[in-house]
Design goal:
Elements: H1 11-18, H2 41-47, E1 57-61, H3 82-90, E2 95-100, E3 112-116, H4 122-132, E4 137-142, H5 148-158, E5 162-174, H6 178-185, E6 192-198, E7 202-208
Helix pairs in contact: 1-3, 4-5
């Protein structure tokens, strides 16, 4: 656990504390993953500028396997569970739920529970939510396989668990693949925001739940 001082740190500092690649203040050669850190902290701090204490539940697919035989792994020095621990400290009242295809990195800690899932399999996604039990999430993140088909499978099997005022974020979308995502997201009636925080290569898709009686949102695609 972090100290009382560190518990109030910003998201990038928490990412460095645990080894998440979502943001960093470290030199590139000092991180535990073999690529340049993302700059996703700006988006998340924008989405939750003053509501950190009100967030009750967070879900993330992709715990961060260090097994190089697992697709979309974090490399041999990767820290499984880094982002889940980061979210636990960034949202001090939230229960954190993680899921991954690698059974060897599942774990349970204070306010963190993890489950097995193959996000490409609708049956597996359905079984995941049966195991998790009832309840909606204020933030849901797909940091899993990073393909359009995998993202669609997880989204369509999970979006019903997003709270009315929640956000569903798909991370690490290659810019040349944005049209593939946009094609199947056209059926989604809520607002969608396509963001490019990492320069010319990677982007994010932030999806707002449909809020009854409200047409507010960031931007419709």
């Amino acid at each position: 656990m972090l100290t009382a001082l560190q518990a109030h740190a910003d998201l990038a500092t928490l990412a460095d504390t645990y080894g998440s690649d979502k943001a960093s203040r470290l030199p590139d050669e000092e991180t535990c993953y073999p690529w340049i850190a993302h700059t996703y902290d700006a988006l998340y701090e924008f989405l939750f500028p003053t509501a950190r204490d009100s967030v009750q539940r967070v879900f993330e697919c992709g715990i961060g396997s260090a097994d190089e035989n697992v697709l979309s792994n974090m490399g041999p020095k990767g820290q499984p569970g880094a982002s889940l621990r980061m979210w636990r400290d960034f949202f001090p009242r939230a229960q954190i739920v993680g899921a991954d295809i690698d059974p060897n990195i599942l774990f349970q800690e204070e306010r963190i529970s993890t489950y097995l899932v193959d996000q490409c399999s609708p049956v597996s996604v359905e079984q995941l939510w049966e195991a998790v039990g009832p309840g909606q999430f204020d933030l849901m993140i797909d940091d899993g396989l990073h393909t359009s088909d995998a993202a669609r499978s997880l989204f369509e099997g999970s979006i019903h668990r997003l709270a009315p005022t929640g956000w569903y974020v798909i991370e690490d979308v290659l810019l040349e693949q944005f049209p593939d995502y946009e094609a199947w997201l056209e059926a989604w009636p809520g607002p969608k925001w396509f963001a490019v925080p990492d320069g010319e290569r990677w982007g994010l898709i932030a999806i707002r739940a449909v809020e009854p009686g409200s047409d507010q949102g960031l931007m419709h695609s």
